Amino acid sequence: MIEQSQSVADREQDANEEPGGGMPPFDAPASPVFASRASIATEVGRATDAERAARATLRRQIAKLEQELSGLLADRFPFLAAPPAIAAAPLGAASGPRLPGLGELEAVRDALAARLQELRTRAAQRGEHERRAQELLERMRLEPGRYRYYRVPVRDLGGTGCGVYEVRPRHGLIGMLAGWWELTLSSGCPLGKGSR
Amino acid sequence: MTGPAPAEPAVGWQAPEVELELPGLQMLYTEVEVRRARSLTGGSPPDVEARLRGLSNRVRGAHAIGIRREPIPAAYRVFFRQVGIDPDLQRTPIEAAVVERMLKGGFLTGGMLDDILLISLLDTGVPVWALDAAGVEGPLGIRTSREGELLGRSADPPLLPDGRLVVADAGGALAVLFGERAPGHEPRARTARVTLYAVVVPGVPALYAEEALWASASALLAD
After folding, report:
1. Is there a contact between B81 and A87 if contact means CB atoms under 8 Å apart?
2. CB contact under 8 A, B89 and A82
3. Do residue A55 and residue B164 have CB atoms under 8 angstroms apart?
4. Any residues with CB less than 8 A from the CB of B111 and at least 6 apart, and which?
5. The pLDDT of residue B79 is above 90
6. I want to staple B56 with a disulfide (CB 3.0 to 4.6 A). Which of B7, B106, B108, B127 is the partner?
7. The CATH number of domain B10-221, selected from 3.40.50.1970, 3.50.40.10, 3.40.50.720, 3.30.470.20
8. A53-102 pLDDT, tens digit each
């Protein structure tokens, strides 16, 4: 085993030596020119690695933003429409799959972040609108007499369909004269061809 | 559908610059002998048509928006962004299929091979593409296009922009990743052997791509 290790070490030593013998290995600091070249190469390598790491970080950020954006849109559908597409450039040479550089990835990340911010604002506004509609509906339910003929569409409450909550007199004219008011929910969307 | 079992898919190679920049990206491919007696571009057999009808009934309106948060379609959306494609301009394959379903009222048949690939896409979320195996030289892989490189080896191939991610073999680029295939390399009506390939992006288990390839290959192998 010891002999085998020794022979491997000898082979490595032989490989490092020039055929003519006597010359040091390339990366040995035998001359200042070699030393500076080696250090430049190392610096370039470090810069490349750092850039690659930065691109990987940007890709992770893009993934997170995209997932948040998709989640928000899917949650709030159909009340929150997707904003216009990010890429301003038309489909063509610049729009295919490639390995984007740092600047391009940053631009995508920033555009996604801005888009997400805009959607969050709109989602918050929509949420506030629904909360106010829900409060009004609750008041209409508790005191229908005070909210005569008030209407709250189901869509304002975050639901889908064409239903509308409305405070109406019970039994028509009799209820109107007697002060009998109630909260009703309409039956839904009108038929495409009318009732007949 | 009955027929021999398809071969295990092979893992495609990747150029070093792609491997370093996009870890987790993988290509799987397999070569299949077409056993169906029908034309690949002609009408689908009843079993494939019935499956397509069933899928049309399963996919509904809200699904078109909700699909983007499902893990596999979401992974492709994210990857599109990471390689410079806006998925709201150029939809991911699964989203494009679902939107087409909404617009046309159903998954309409586009020829037997296209139908088979669409079914596997809808079942797994992983897109599968087909090439005429006779035009493929050696193993497939992913790399970036070189300056002045042409897409395919036909008489009048289109010019590829420099740095485009492409699916390539030993002879050159055969398709843009997630995009157009080289003219003359698409399977034709009577193509005897096809090469099916799937692109696995980070976040998608390779099992899904294997399943997509297996389903497509099995459908082509069925008598």
Report:
1. no
2. no
3. no
4. B39, B40, B41, B42, B43, B44
5. yes
6. B106
7. 3.50.40.10
8. 999 999 999 999 999 999 998 888 888 877 666 654 444 445 789 999 99
